[in-house]
Amino acid sequence: MKKAIVLLSGGLDSATAINIAKSEGYEVYALSFKYGQRHLHELECAKKIASKVGVVEHQIAEINLNVFGGSALTDAEISVPKGREIESMSEGIPVTYVPARNTIFLSFALAYAEVIGCHDIFIGVNALDYSGYPDCRPEFIEAYQNMANLATKEGVEGTNKMTIHTPLIDLTKGQIVEWGLKLGVDYSMTNTCYDPSPEGKACGECDACILRLKGFAENGTTDPAEYV
User: Fold this and answer.
1) Residue partners of 115: CB distance under 8 A and separation at least 6
2) Structure confidence by residue, pLDDT tens digits, 121-145
3) Which of 39, 108, 113, 188 is buried most, with the most CB atoms less than 10 Å from its CB?
């Protein structure tokens, strides 16, 4: 079987992506990060998802992006926006953007891939519905893949080039949920909220919650996640 590394945050998109990789016949290796985020409930979700999917290995890498701050997800001094209209979410880069996060995460995935002899990396980035993050755009992924095949031993000496798979990048949240439901993804295990309660319940008011709820509503179903 071909090997695939899947970046697994514990959220809706990454849970869908890891199930897509599994459905396509890959031997899955999950990679999550304890990166200095204010809320660690998502890592507990990632562990549950990885266990249910049946991954070969689940690595949780520890890095500390909160030494730089600059994001509402890593800096307690910056408030998470609540109650915004969907139309306004793509106006500029939001404060929930973590500087260079996907660049850093993909670098770790690249190193992991070289060690285990893997040529496929899945990441659940999405450029629709919420297009404010610069590192979720197709042009970023294309540029990163080109760099990956210039910067690695396998890319220079090997016969197989590195491929970064972004199966969700051109889908709306509703389409992502639809695909996941067809695959049998248990979305009750996932956490998308930017500002969950200490018990891990979603706030229902941040941008991520609003878009997630919209996705389930478009499919005529109820989000199984717990909300405050």
Assistant:
1) none
2) 999 999 876 657 889 999 999 999 9
3) 113
Give the pLDDT of residue 35: 96
Q: Which of 68, 126, 64, 125 is nearest to 99 (CA)?
A: 68
Domain with 129 in it: 3-218
Contact 4, 122 (CB under 8 A): yes
Coil, strand or helix at 219: coil
- Residues 195, 59: Cα–Cα separation, whole Å: 24
Q: Where residue 55 sits, what CATH number does that domain have?
A: 3.40.50.620
Q: What is the pLDDT of residues 12-55, one digit of tens each?
A: 999 999 999 999 999 999 999 999 998 899 999 999 999 999 99
Average pLDDT over the chain, rounded to an integer: 93
Distance CA 177, CA 185 (A): 9
227 domain residue, yes or no: no
Answer yes or no: is 223 within a domain: no
Residue/partner pairs of 95-98 with CB below 8 Å, 24 or more apart: 95/71, 96/71, 96/72, 96/194, 96/206, 96/207, 96/208, 97/71, 97/132, 97/133, 97/134, 98/35, 98/65, 98/70, 98/71, 98/73, 98/74
Q: Is residue 50 part of a domain?
A: yes
Contact 168, 176 (CB under 8 A): yes
Q: Is 139 left (phi over 0), alpha (psi -120 to 50) or beta?
A: alpha
Higher pLDDT, residue 178 or 1: 178
